[in-house]
Amino acid sequence: MASKRIPQLLSASLLVPLLVHAAGEQTKVGNIQVSVTIVGECEVFTPQPLSFGTLGATFPTKAAQSLINVNCSANTPYTIALNNGQNGNNASDRKLKSGTELLPYGLFSDAAHGKVWGDGTSGSLLVSGVGTGVSQAITVYGQLPKPQSNPKPGTYADTVTATLIY
């Protein structure tokens, strides 16, 4: 029995100096603040062209659609603004141009063409949404009204800048 007791006594005698030494020390405790800030992000923003096609000079009011593809991380709010285009004075007064000839047209956020999509000024509206983490297709509704007079033949165009705010 004595041989079993010697290792136990040795173990206990080795701990005593450690405890005595630790008892004489002072300690301070501090906290480490750990954090991360996650911000929403949008990876893809792709406006597609909108074409009214090829029309005769006496065309009736013509509608067309386009898509803006938006891919924002889940729960990220976003807003899309459309400017007046190169030839418009405001969002309600956009114009297609061929040489010096102008044709009025509109861009809307609804199929009924009642909500002018712009930059939030002059009575225009912005389109808002919340990201889902996958691509979302936002429809742009275009309308080319029946012209007051027969427009000259030509290719009429405009460039509207779409801005994604998130």
Q: Which tags fit this structure?
A:
single chain; 5-stranded antiparallel sheet; Immunoglobulin-like; 8 strands; alpha+beta; 3-stranded antiparallel sheet; rod-shaped; 166 residues; 14% helix; 1 helix
Folded structure, characterized:
The chain has 166 residues and is of the alpha+beta class. It has a single domain (42-165), classed as Immunoglobulin-like. Helix content is 14%, strand content 32%. It has one helix spanning 2-24; strands spanning 42-47, 62-72, 77-82, 94-98, 101-108, 127-130, 136-144, 162-165. It has a five-stranded antiparallel beta sheet with strand order 1-2-7-5-4, with no helix packed on it. A hairpin with a 2-residue loop joins strand 4 (94-98) and strand 5 (101-108). The longest helix has 23 residues, at 2-24.
CATH architecture: Sandwich
**Element-by-element helix/strand order:** HEEEEEEEE
**Percent helix range:** 10-25%
CATH homologous superfamily identity? Fimbrial-type adhesion domain
Task: Classify the secondary structure makeup into a structural class.
Answer: alpha+beta
> How many β-strand stretches?
8
Oligomer category: single chain
Tell me the β content: 25-35%
Tally the helices.
Answer: 1
Write down the domain tally.
1
End-to-end separation in angstroms reads 78 Å
Outline of the structure:
This protein is an alpha+beta fold and 166 residues long. The chain has a single domain (42-165), classed as Fimbrial-type adhesion domain (Immunoglobulin-like, Sandwich), CATH 2.60.40. It has one helix spanning 2-24; strands at residues 42-47, 62-72, 77-82, 94-98, 101-108, 127-130, 136-144, 162-165.
